[in-house]
Amino acid sequence: MNFSFSKSEIKAKLILEECGLNDPTELPMSDIIMGRGAFYEESPLEGKEGEIVSAGSRSIITVNSNITYPTKKRFVAAHELGHHEMHRNIKPMFTDTEEELMSWFKGGPQEVEANEFASEFLTPSELFYKPSPKDPFRLSRFGKLLETPLGVAAGPHTQLAQNIVAAWLCGARYMELKTVQTIDNLNISKPCIDMQDEGYNCEWSQELKIRQSFDQYLDAWILIHVLKHLVHGDDFSEPGTIFNMSVGYDLEGIKKENVQWFLNKMQDAADEIRERREHLKIMYPKISEININPCISDNVTLSTMHGCPPEEIEKIGLYLLREKKLHTTIKLNPTLLEKEQLNQLIGASGFDINIPDSAFEHDLKFQEAVKIIHSLKNAAEIEGLHFGIKLTNTLECINNKEIFPEKEKMMYMSGLPLHPIAIGLAEKLQNQFNGKLDISFSGGLDAFNFSDVISCGLYPATVCSDILKPGGYGRLNQYIENLHTEFRQVNSTSLDEFIINKAGKGQEISRAILNNLLKYTVKLNAEKKYTKTTIKSKSIKTAKNLPYPSIPSTAWNNACRAWLMIWPFQASVSV
Hints:
Number of helices: 20
Largest sheet: 8 strands, parallel, barrel
Radius of gyration: 26 Å
Strand order of the largest sheet: 7-8-11-12-13-14-17-18
Mean pLDDT: 87
Strand content: 5-15%
Structural class: alpha/beta
Helix content: 40-55%
Number of strands: 18
């Protein structure tokens, strides 16, 4: 991307460099602010989200303690830091309401600059993916360009427009949208996700109603086109991005009016796009120049409930192909590995995971899956559509986490220990289909195994758990950098060439996929990274009482304020 930076964005880059921060999430904003010569506090504020009072080179930054979301607090704090760095000599006091923070074009130039500063400071543009027509891993899927084989899995990253756009900025191009179902008034247990090296969740579906979900996907689709145009101008013909719908959980529900409305609108949103254009013209007049495809998605993944009967899965797949004319993917469960092999892998991992016998009894069996795959592959060929499978769904296990409500008897594992399981299942299926099965992948993906997964022909590969960790979407940049490095090392100019060169030149692509899967499975068996023994789970908190001053907090704050304004202040950020 050919970015041109404003003076406030350049200022943010300079401050990050002076602080020695590659990733601003390495330190709390309070520490960074103190290190820049300002005092930070959180207090209830009436009618405003943040405030800064300055005197000379000193400032007091106050963030509304009633703000619920930590990420919003960080943005407000960074916004006020922008005022401190750029405007303290212009105006002694700024008060910022939510409207002023969010409505960039309604605020004055100093508010716009503070927002630009905060955006660059919290999400440095160096983390953004810079696509090139020369990228060797570009591919075509469903007849559309996909700029990278990397995406985000259906889940918390694909529920809201801002998350989808943030993932896109950092390199994700295959967006597996969160599953919708006809029952869209759900009461989700909270908390619903526990993320460590392994992840667990106890929620299955969208928290939004179907029409709200459509609005989020529509907004994300339009914003991606606008951002692409902003960077490349007229020099692009398509977004290089695919939105993959996800539906569940039975055929009767999929045939209901609200799900049908969703599927139809996702295939033709011309009216809604026309309406959005009119609203966006004020902020981005050039939107009238952009060719925004009214078809947001013509492809779908079926995500069924654990225990869905085989005949129901096949019926839904045939319906999506024959009746809805959608490129179709079926997401499969890790229990297809069957009880003995799966329990062996879990036992070797050292993770405290207990899979109930019922999971193997009610889930699809391997030979049933093979029969369904053959049936749906044949149906797709007749319809001139694409069919594939997705590995894998989360792994059903007994809830032994205190973080989840007791009423949740089961939880669903993702992340690190799921990786060897998903790869093992991929090898088993590809051996059954002679390396010719289209498999997209998700399960414990990270920057260090991404290239191996791609070399096994498992793409698009999507991630969820890894980017729930500190660094978030900024972690995606390393995935693509590592893939570029691997391509150069084996002198490859395309995905097929990369797979063949990793296996040994002169092989057919299907044989190369099988060889790479075998080698990677052996590598994983010897890899300690995926075992609990390598991970320290003890708390890093000290048991000691910290020596806070024995004076009331209000007096302490006032004393600090007075000291800050009167005495020379010097601090350094240690990283």
